Recover the amino acids of this structure.
């Protein structure tokens, strides 16, 4: 199997009654001058009724003797017709916390067994992916992976039949450079990965 075999073969409008995952909405609101306006946006249909979040992104750090590495994925994404470089991620189930979702999705998508960081930074503030377009949101969850654990020696992901994921890791110190290289090779960089890399680069430039 090669991810490069995947490709978009057609696009067409989607009738709302056929949409399983998303819906379009028109919101009416008043602006700072009390004028009434409307806004077109998208919403997920999958957010659990009692959940404040749609899902999680996972900053999974492999604890290696040579230094910390960030676990990344390659996954074909039909909306952009490209293989994307992403962090592990997934949608929350009913009654599930961000922490439990992250540990579950990490195991299912990558095979790794991880532990959420417990120093108060394990779960990020609530983040909105693209608030001018949709209400989709998430928590980023920081997870450390002990590479000495027997469970992390022979990985057995539990992918669904429509999931095709290749995992790899990058030394944290090289993340920005690797994003540049991967983009040059034709990959699309997911915003969560790119923003993390930009953060490292800003810190480096400003000696923070």
């Amino acid at each position: 199997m090669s991810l490069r075999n995947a490709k978009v073969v057609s696009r067409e409008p989607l009738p709302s009654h056929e949409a399983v995952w998303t819906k379009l909405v028109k919101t009416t609101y008043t602006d700072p001058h009390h004028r009434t306006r409307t806004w077109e946006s998208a919403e997920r249909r999958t957010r659990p009724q009692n959940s404040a979040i749609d899902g999680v992104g996972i900053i999974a750090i492999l604890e290696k003797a040579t230094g910390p590495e960030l676990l990344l994925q390659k996954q074909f994404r039909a909306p952009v017709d490209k293989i994307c470089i992403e962090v592990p991620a997934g949608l929350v189930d009913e009654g599930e916390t961000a922490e439990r979702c992250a540990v579950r999705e990490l195991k299912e998508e990558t095979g790794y067994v991880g532990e959420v960081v417990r120093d108060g930074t394990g779960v990020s503030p609530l983040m909105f992916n693209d608030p001018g377009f949709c209400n989709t949101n998430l928590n980023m969850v920081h997870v450390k992976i002990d590479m000495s654990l027997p469970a992390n020696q022979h990985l057995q992901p539990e992918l669904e039949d429509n999931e095709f994921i290749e995992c790899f890791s990058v030394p944290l110190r090289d993340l920005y450079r690797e994003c540049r290289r991967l983009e040059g090779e034709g990959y699309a960089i997911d915003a969560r990965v790119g923003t993390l890399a930009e953060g490292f680069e800003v810190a480096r430039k400003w000696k923070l």
About this structure: The longest helix spans residues 191-205. The CA atoms of residues 47 and 151 lie 31 Å apart. The radius of gyration is 19 Å.
